[in-house]
Design goal:
Elements: H1 16-23, E1 47-54, E2 62-69, E3 72-77, E4 84-88, E5 92-97, E6 105-111, E7 116-121, H2 125-145, H3 147-155, H4 159-164, H5 199-202, H6 213-227, E8 234-235, H7 237-245, H8 249-260, H9 262-268, H10 272-279, H11 286-294, H12 308-324, H13 334-342, H14 347-361, H15 371-387, H16 389-398, H17 403-406, H18 413-421, H19 423-426, H20 432-444, H21 457-460, H22 464-475, H23 481-509, H24 519-535, E9 562-563, H25 565-575, E10 580-586, E11 591-597, H26 601-610, E12 618-619, H27 620-631, H28 635-646, E13 653-654, H29 656-669, H30 677-696, E14 718-719, H31 720-728, H32 731-743, H33 761-770, H34 773-789, E15 794-797, H35 819-826, H36 873-885, H37 919-924, H38 932-941
Antiparallel strand pairs: 1-2, 1-7, 2-3, 3-4, 4-8, 5-6, 6-7, 9-12, 10-11, 10-15, 13-14
Length: 948
Amino acid sequence: MTIISTALRHFKEPTKEQLTEIFFSIPSLDSSTSDGSSNHAGQPDKMEINAVLSLGETEDSYAGKLHIMPPYLAFSSLDKKSVRFTIPLSTIRRVERLNARAGVYALSLLTWHGMKIIVQLTSLRPTADLFCSILREALKVELQRGQMKQVKSFVKTCYSEVLVSDSSNAADNEHEDGSLITDEKDGSIQDVSYHGGLGLKFKFPGDAKKLREASKIKLWTTYLRTHGRNLTLLRYPQCTRLVQVGLPNRLRGEMWETLSGSIFLRFSNPGYYERLLEENKGTTNTSTDDIEKDLHRSLPEYAGYQSEEGINALRRVLRAYSYKNPELGYCQAMNILAAAILIYMSEEQAFWLLEVLCGRLLPGYYAPSMHGTLLDQRVFESLVQKHLPIIHEHFQLVDVQLSVASLPWFLSLYINTILKINGEQLLQIQDDGGFLNLMRDYFASLGDSAHPNSSDPRARAITNFQELLLVSFREFSVITEELILSERKRFRGEIIHSIESFAKRGAIRNLRSMGRFTKEQVGLIYDALYKAMCIVPPPPAAAPAPSLFTTGEGHEEKPETRIGLRTFRQFLSEIASWARDEKIVMNGFQQRIDREVAEHEFIDRLFYFWDTGCHGALSFQDLVSGLDGVMFNDLMENIEWFFNLHDKNKDGYLTKDEVLTLSESFLFIFRYEIGDAYLGAVSRFMTNAFEYGDALLPPSEPSEDGSSAPIASNQPYLNLATFRMVVLADEVLESFFETDLSESFKLQPLPEMELPSAHSGILGDLWSTIATDSNKKMFNMLSDEIGKTIGKHQVVNKPSIGRYTKLEEPKARESLLTPTLRKSLSKLSLSGSSASSTTVAGTAPSSSSTLSVNTTLEPPKAATVPDSASLSAMPLLQAVNAAALMERTPFAIDDAVDNDEEDEDDALDGHDDQVMDEVDAFLEAHDSGLSEADKAVANDLLHAEPLK
């Protein structure tokens, strides 16, 4: 029992639009609201324009791009990191065009928090007019939606509003460590309107004095008053500096959701968290069971999680997330993440931040395969090898795995720094245990002085953590986000193949029984199943229907992947030669093999025959057991297997209708065989089956008019012993059941499936547009039409069995038959008739794709259907025979895989990364991208009046 997932193979590199959304930390514009309707339906178009941003005389002006992505307005400086903001359009109170000098097109934006933002549109006048028109329409839409009315109530939930308010004394009502002051009269805690975490009641971790909470609060208050807050925060260089200095505990939760963009999800989905919990109240599933197991193992040392209040809050957040994302549900370590952020955030804030962390910031970290974690570990090892070669070589020498310690803290600037700071101690390590102990001791000492023996009190005040930051930005500023993204793209294929190999071994190991297969053969079955699931993904697993009865066994089956009928057809086409239609097409320009998945009642019957548990779907174990029941059989076992397959009610008899269905199954399997040998065998089988069946029927009483009573459709007609006798009476059918049936199931190594290539750049986009399946199909159709015009178009169907490679007459066997039957069979001789068509030709018996074909085809001859005494089956047989001789359509789906690969994607344009060893040096080294003349124009706009 196991889960087989193909999600990693369906990974696609984000589009340019998606990258823009990720960069500005805004929700996907294609997402839906909590009520299921489109969140941004009817919004105006998106647009970007060159602009210069100005904010007061104390701030420099910055050149960059202004984006309108309704319902958001965003800006980014040219270097994409100095200045950035994303604000909802609903927070813009007024937009005015400024009366500036000639040739200058400038707008004044007044936000909800009173900030006056000046943007100078530096594109051509028609482009600027178009941008303003789109902005005007977008603002009208926001006004009609009523979003602007929600801003007032929403900002009251943010602590920053209380912090910057001159009339509020909320900060005075809290202890320095973040806990609330109780009322002296009744001892109750004073109510607060803003959202906060468990730390407001159970105190925040750490020493507030050592963390300098009071100083941080003052610095952030000053910044938020002039640069906006929560929904309207502008990220200037000072914001980056303050983040590196540290976030105050009471403001930490709000800044997390503001900088990550989860605040926009909370703003656009009011009340969704509470409704989600209410709608799923009392719902239990596998995720909820796993959550209950981990609740009391989530930061148990923190006082908040030693009480029911903290445990219940954590339970609600984790359950709500599992309800919202049922495909992911709950994964281990998600409880630690949620428990940490709940100390600083409310439940609703933590819920939306968890959505952003798992879906956008850390994709694949909290997933069953942990592919994001494994990929970033591989990136980390590559960076260590490149930037710290001495430590890397030592670890290779002593066989120390970096991933042993890097799982909880790698892929940040601090990782390489930690290794560099502790480089001398690391070189003394000889095993993984020493590595873990060193890292554990270092993390425990982050708050200690980095220079405790220094005579300078300022040096003694520097902690190990501050030194960590300093070395990070000085020594490893070259490790940029663009570099990490490039490395992820480079190693993604390697990680996916590793995960798939691990999942394959796990699936084989978890099988209850491999039957008579070897482990290698089971691996080939898995490969065929995995390929089928990639081509035709199975439907999502549904929860089992509630039952009134229980088995009392006290356990449930583990979840496993099951495939439906469509995926089973694709799987069987890889295993069985008769389950696919392979056509060799020659048109004078190319020779190709078109493969189509066959559809027939016989395949559907086999699907339900193997579904012994009546689930309506097949598991990997079902497929292995089903193939084991047919691939190793001898003659008698195969005859019995085929009989049982068509015995619908499992009573040991075939009815007359089931005999006809069995004959149709024969015709389906033999549909592309050369000559009339198999067709004649089916004809004789039907004649003998009906003659024996009629002979075995009990004598029926004649009706009133003297005629025999008709046979009921569900009346037992042919038993297994008689069926064996009829089969053994024909040499062709005997040979089929003795060897051909089992050998038609072939387990062959499949070529390694290529991962979807990620094209980038002009050439990559052009090639991905041209090299599509539909375009290749159109080209094949065009070449086929030209081939028909010039008389060179030929289609040859590949036989499924391939025993006969030339036209032969059917052979009748006289053993086991009575003289009466022999006389009857003599009438069925087809010695004077043979048929061929352009759809059949002599081919090699191999079923591989490499096939040598005789292109000299004879014109079809007239077919004659033999006279027979085979009751009512002959009209059906005649129709099937006539259909088999018709030329099949040459226009088939082209399943050929394009193996051409583009060169590796060009690396993204790099940007100079300013080294911030000190705060002042960081600001002085910054370049706004403007000349002195541009700065003068921007400064003039600060004093310009709106146009009348």
